[in-house]
Amino acid sequence: MARRVFTVPNQLTFLRLGFLPFFIILIHGHRYGWALGILVLAALTDGMDGLLARSLNQKSSLGAYLDPIADKLLLSSSFIILAVEGQMRWWLTIIVLSRDVMILIVAAVILVATGHRQFPSSIFGKITTATQILLVFAVLAVAVFHNPAVELTRQVLVYAVTGFTIFSGFHYSVVVAHRMSQ
């Protein structure tokens, strides 16, 4: 069992979790270039852990839970610290976090009420997560490079994140309600 905990993919996920406090400290200290570097490293380790889990046949139940938790912690922390530092609008941060809290509450209620543990993500949830990640990259890139094209990309992503976050939250609610009625 210990070998299934300390797999290479799980170690990469633990490393990504270890980046989190440094990422927050760097943003709080207005060291956006370094924070962007940490974010790139986190993205690389995220890609590598999934690839290695499949190619080395090192998938584990711990990794199945830990990987999305690490992703969500990094993403949620990014929105919060960027809002605290005035780099992200609070209204958008509240929308993003509210959707995540709603999904967690619904999943917990379903788990307690029915024992159902499978909550597969939808394509809309994946698109939402991707646009949120791209927005965090764009916000940091604007702070580092001060490029008008990157600023325009950031502005477009704000609208995309808002739309996809709201839509995917409603979509999740409808899908869950439909499954529960069957």
What's this model, at a glance?
The chain has 182 residues and is an all-alpha fold.
Structure description:
The protein has helices at 2-5, 8-28, 32-55, 61-84, 90-114, 123-145, 148-181. It is an all-alpha fold. Helix 5 (90-114) runs parallel beside helix 7 (148-181). The N and C termini lie far apart (37 Å). The relative contact order is 0.11. The model has no long low-confidence stretch (mean pLDDT 88).
Helix coverage percent: over 70%
Number of helices: 7
Bulk shape:
globular
Q: Compute the separation of the termini in Å.
A: 37 Å
Global Rg: 17 Å
Estimate what percentage of residues fall within beta strands.
under 5%
* Derived structural class: mainly alpha
Largest sheet: none
Overall pLDDT, averaged? 88
The total of beta strands comes to 0
Order of H and E elements: HHHHHHH
Unreliable stretches: none
Descriptors:
mainly alpha, 7 helices, 182 residues
Could you outline the blueprint of secondary structure elements for this entry?
Blueprint: H1 2-5, H2 8-28, H3 32-55, H4 61-84, H5 90-114, H6 123-145, H7 148-181
Helix pairs in contact: 2-3, 2-4, 3-6, 4-5, 4-6, 5-7, 6-7
